[in-house]
From TrEMBL:
Name this protein carries in UniProt: BTB domain-containing protein
Organism of provenance: Cinchona calisaya
Assigned keywords, A-Z: Ubl conjugation pathway
Domain BTB span(s) in chain numbering: 119-190
Keyword Secreted tagged: no
Role of this protein: May act as a substrate-specific adapter of an E3 ubiquitin-protein ligase complex (CUL3-RBX1-BTB) which mediates the ubiquitination and subsequent proteasomal degradation of target proteins.
PROSITE patterns the UniProt entry points to: BTB (PS50097)
Length: 520
């Protein structure tokens, strides 16, 4: 029997909860947590500024007992609603404190000021959530500073006028804008404010046609530094507002003039040439890293927008030919170097420097999807390859990193060239890469052995089967003699083996492919 009575009480409570929930939804009763507080009627003895109090919030008693172990859906919704209401109350209390602070020294609250006298306009600003601020301000100030209020108050000659601005996004900013109307030097009043606050004030000043406020905000924005986040906000806000002639002055720091954009390619050439010719190695490496990052960002933006400041193909090809000429000159000098000469170390550094410059330019070309023409140019460097074979490996191994870089990008599909060009590239430089691989791996920590081997394997496997066979059989003999000093192309060798002896594809005259599988 006790259990039946408990179940009856629970069912009764659930029914009551469901009934209350349905009545709230139908509007028959109000939810005390969401209902606004009714405003008090005006009184002649109340102060010039009145703030409507926030809705009351009553916390649930911690000692209230639950008749069931788990809360109902209605109770869970009520608790969530209570938490949201508490947060809303706290936010409103903070807003009220900020508004009181703004109004603390407002000129229209100084009743001892004989120049102003008593206010003759009751201005009420109401937020979307119902929070409201009332101020007794002066008609001649509003109409003299704001074209919006001049139009609204022009036909009304009553001694006391009430004006209400409804559904304001930010009551605090509207109140601050009204206070600014009483300031002789608005720009001075803005000093020390955050950029975001001035942008909000600019929006309100524009909405009420407060021209002196608009000008002061624009002059402030033109004078102060912006962070990157603030820069985006400034450009976005000013783009949304239809303002007067001062706007271009504010955006001059971010908007390039047409003459500057047309000379962008010359600027790029000057910067890149300066990096390639830099005398301080540390500064050269830092500037390479910086410019590479900036160019990658610019390239990413160019794919989304029609950016006219893109670096040209001719500029990059000019730099490529300059680096090639420098490399040929350095290698020509290196072929005449006596092993006992004291300056061979500096010559070795010069070759490494020029090879590093070439790799940097190639990286820019690949990022700009212009690498295919350089592959052909590099494959045609027969003279350079001959000079390369005549000097010690310790001097030349950095040059082979260029070949490795191209093979990696071809293997990734970032460079698309015909099979003739791919074979010409390997015919000219593969032997040199084999010879220098051991030095490359030991002398430079930045060389990723697995990455180079994978890129080289993928490049070889894009060639016709007969060319794959010639290259991989040559590699087979070399690997047996050199071991780790030779790239490990076993995966490419396995693929070639299966293509040649296990799965053979035969194409007949009607372009039908027949597969012969000899694995069984």
């Amino acid at each position: 029997m006790p259990s039946r009575r408990t179940a009856t009480r629970n069912n009764t409570k659930l029914s009551n909860n469901q009934l209350v929930s349905a009545m709230i939804k139908q509007g028959l009763i109000s939810d005390p947590l969401l209902s606004p507080t009714p405003s008090q009627p005006p009184s002649s003895s109340r102060p010039a500024v009145s703030l409507s109090p926030p809705p009351s919030f009553t916390a649930a008693s911690p000692n209230s007992a639950r008749s069931i172990s788990s809360p109902t859906l209605f109770e869970m919704m009520s608790e969530e609603q209570a938490r949201e209401s508490k947060h809303s109350v706290q936010a409103r209390l903070k807003l009220r404190d900020r508004v009181f602070k703004v109004l603390a020294d407002a000129p229209f609250r100084n009743h001892d000021d004989d120049n102003l006298g008593s206010g003759d306009v009751r201005l009420t600003v109401t937020a979307i959530d119902g929070f409201r601020v009332s101020m007794e301000v002066h008609r001649r100030v509003l109409t003299g500073r704001s074209r919006f209020f001049a139009e609204k108050l022009r036909k009304n000659g009553a001694q006391m006028v009430s004006v209400e601005i409804l559904e304001c996004d930010d009551v605090e900013v509207y109140v601050e804008a009204v206070v600014l109307m009483y300031c002789e030097d608005v720009k001075k009043k803005l000093m020390g404010e955050e950029v975001s606050k001035v942008l909000e004030l600019l929006k309100v000043c524009s909405a009420i046609s407060f021209d002196d406020g608009i000008l002061a905000c624009l002059e402030y924005l033109e004078a102060v530094p912006w962070s990157e986040d603030e820069e985006e906000k400034v450009v976005s806000h000013l783009g949304d507002l239809q303002l007067h002639e001062s706007l271009p002055n504010v955006l001059q720091r971010v908007v390039a003039e047409p003459s500057t954009s047309s000379r962008a390619d010359d600027i790029f050439l000057k910067l890149l040439t300066g990096v390639l010719q830099a005398k301080d190695d540390k500064a050269r490496r830092e500037m390479k890293t910086l410019i590479s990052r900036l160019l990658k960002e610019e390239s990413s933006d160019h794919r989304s927008f029609n950016n006219s400041t893109d670096i040209s193909r001719d500029t990059l090809h000019h730099l490529c030919h300059r680096c090639l000429s420098s490399l040929i000159l350095c290698l020509s000098e290196a072929t005449c170097v006596d092993e006992n000469r004291q300056d061979r170390g500096s010559l070795m550094s010069e070759i490494a420097r020029e090879a590093d410059n070439m790799q940097w330019v190639v990286d820019i070309l690949v990022d700009r999807k212009m690498g295919s023409e350089f592959v052909k140019l590099w494959a045609d460097q027969k003279e350079l390859a001959v000079l390369h074979s005549k000097i010690p490996t310790m001097y030349r191994h950095e040059i082979s990193r260029i070949t490795a870089q191209l093979c990696v990008e071809i293997g990734r599909g970032h460079i698309l060239v015909p099979k003739e060009t791919r074979y010409s590239l390997l015919s000219t430089w593969l032997e040199a890469l084999y010879e220098d691989f051991g030095w490359m791996r030991r002398a430079s920590r930045s060389v990723d052995k697995k990455l180079v081997e994978d890129g080289l394997s993928r490049t070889i496997l894009t060639l016709p089967l007969r060319q794959q066979q010639a290259i991989l059989l040559n590699w087979f003999d070399r690997f047996l003699n050199k071991g780790d000093d030779c790239p490990n192309l076993q995966k490419a060798f396995e693929v070639w083996w299966r293509r040649s002896f296990i799965k053979q594809y035969v194409v007949d005259s009607h372009l039908q492919i027949t597969v012969y599988d000899y694995s069984n």
